[in-house]
């Protein structure tokens, strides 16, 4: 499993993905990778290629309200108008990854609606609360995956059938 926090520390709420990764540091075994990147599609694609599960966290433009969390298990194909404050969308990374066979086996995306994408540091209060919520969701997902890995498969449980 890899958790990819996308964003820029210099664009206020755009740092939401980075803050989630910071909040998760030290909470997982070494086989869970925590990384950050600026969202450039080939960077994201290189990070998630071949992973069992890639979890991507990024700030998104507000539509429901600051701090609202969107969760998806896939990314739609990119459109010509699809851009983010990173220059191009994660949808483009997914589209390129599909074409180049560089997708993870599973994908989960968390989008945290921001309110302030101006220059500077620091998250707005609703985004800060959402960061904690998303970090808890990801921690629960990692625990669930660990329990699933620990269960013996029917052909490994010692029974002779």
UniProtKB/TrEMBL annotation:
It holds the Pfam family HycI. Keywords: Aspartyl protease, Hydrolase, Protease. It comes from the Bacteria. Belongs to the peptidase A31 family. PANTHER family: HYDROGENASE 1 MATURATION PROTEASE, HYDROGENASE 2 MATURATION PROTEASE. NCBIfam families: hydrog_prot (TIGR00072). This is Hydrogenase maturation protease. It comes from Actinoallomurus liliacearum.
């Amino acid at each position: 499993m890899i958790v990819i926090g996308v964003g820029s520390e210099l664009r206020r709420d755009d740092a939401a993905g980075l803050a989630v990764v910071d909040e998760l540091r030290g909470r997982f075994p070494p086989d869970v990778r925590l990384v950050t990147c600026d969202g450039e599609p080939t960077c994201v694609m290189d990070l998630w290629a071949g992973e069992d599960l890639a979890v991507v966290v990024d700030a998104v433009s507000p539509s429901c309200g600051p701090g609202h969390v969107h969760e998806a298990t896939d990314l739609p194909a990119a459109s010509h108008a699809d851009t983010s404050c990173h220059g191009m969308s994660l949808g483009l990374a997914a589209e390129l990854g599909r074409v180049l066979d560089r997708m993870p086996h599973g994908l989960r995306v968390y989008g945290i609606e921001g309110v302030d994408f101006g220059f500077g540091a620091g998250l707005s209060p609703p985004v800060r609360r959402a960061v904690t919520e998303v970090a808890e969701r990801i921690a629960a997902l990692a625990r669930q995956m660990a329990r699933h890995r620990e269960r013996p498969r029917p052909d490994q449980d010692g029974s002779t059938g």
